[in-house]
Amino acid sequence: MQKEDIYKDEFIKKLLSDVELEEPSTDFTKNVMDDVMQDWLENSVSVKKRMPLKRLFILIAIVLLAVVILLGTDVHSIVASWDHPFIQQLNAILIEPIHNLLMVAFNRIVSLPPIVYIIMIAGLSLIVFDNLVRKMLHQS
Amino acid sequence: MKSNKDSYYIQKIKNGDVGAYAYLVDRHKKMAFNIAMQIIGNREDAEEITQDSFLKAYQALDSYKGESKFSTWLYRIIYNASISKMRKKKLDQVSIDDDYTASVNVKTTQSALQDLTNEEQKLYINRALNKMNGDEKIIISLFYLEENSIDEVSEVTGLSVANVKVKLHRSRKKLYGILEQFLQKELKTIL
């Protein structure tokens, strides 16, 4: 920097230290915060917090695994063969009723007419399609 | 220190404390409003743009990763909003690139200004600043008043670092030239 520029730089720094910036109106912060709060309220009403996808998959996997184990293996008879009063009681109160319930549900699902499956698949497809369209519209 | 405090409040907002944004608004509103004022030139529009920009900044806060200072990021939003408002209004910017730099005698101008009272100095400086165009005023304000670095000024204005350096040099020279002209006029009227 040339000597003259250094003079100017220093002098302008000194001069501008006295310059007062203009203030916005007194209720400026209040106005901004009103807008911000309104935005926050609108978003908190319209956007429901969703369960993270990863956690949802883990939960579904655990439930499916439990169902497969309870249906695929004869858990209640294995547990019943254990000669322990607590295990026997647990089997009688919890495992066997669940097993029976799942078996009934499974048999009913299997015996459903094909039209029910077609309607279910079509409904699910529509929900997925609707979500995709909403996402695309939101991004654009 | 200032930006550390900003990041503390930004974290609070991201954690759901929306009210903490009032602190950031209070801290940066003055400079933000002046940036808009320097481009737009009238209080009502400048205030509206600054207000909208603060809302935009809040809505985009998740995209702020803290790579630059919050103020730099915010001023950039305000700068862009003001420029696009100007374009929309199609205001013809009066070119003030008059040759104010013709004969600048640094020491004479300095001593003449120093002889003035504080109030007179402020008056002349404000008048001189008003003679400069938006970009020049913003660069001078950001660099000297807000004490931003050349890199930060470049980030706000979108100009290259080299361009900011050149503009800063020219703006400084121009401000001097304008001040000198004012002082000469004053001397003539006195004599």
TrEMBL record, chain B:
What are this entry's molecular-function GO terms?
DNA binding; sigma factor activity
Alphabetically list the UniProt keywords: DNA-binding, Sigma factor, Transcription, Transcription regulation
Q: Which InterPro entries match?
A: RNA_pol_sigma-70-like, RNA_pol_sigma-70_dom, RNA_pol_sigma70_ECF_CS, RNA_pol_sigma70_r2, RNA_pol_sigma70_r4_t2, RNA_pol_sigma_r2, RNA_pol_sigma_r3/r4-like, WH-like_DNA-bd_sf
Could you confirm whether the keyword Ubl conjugation appears in this record? no
Q: Write down the superkingdom of origin.
A: Bacteria
What are the BP-aspect GO terms? DNA-templated transcription initiation
According to the entry, every stretch annotated as the RNA polymerase sigma factor 70 region 4 type domain falls at 124-175
Database matches in SUPFAM superfamilies: Sigma2 domain of RNA polymerase sigma factors, Sigma3 and sigma4 domains of RNA polymerase sigma factors
Outline the extent of the RNA polymerase sigma-70 region domain. 24-90
* Similarity section: Belongs to the sigma-70 factor family. ECF subfamily.
The record's NCBIfam families line, in alphabetical order, gives: sigma70-ECF (TIGR02937)
What is the protein's name according to its record? RNA polymerase sigma factor
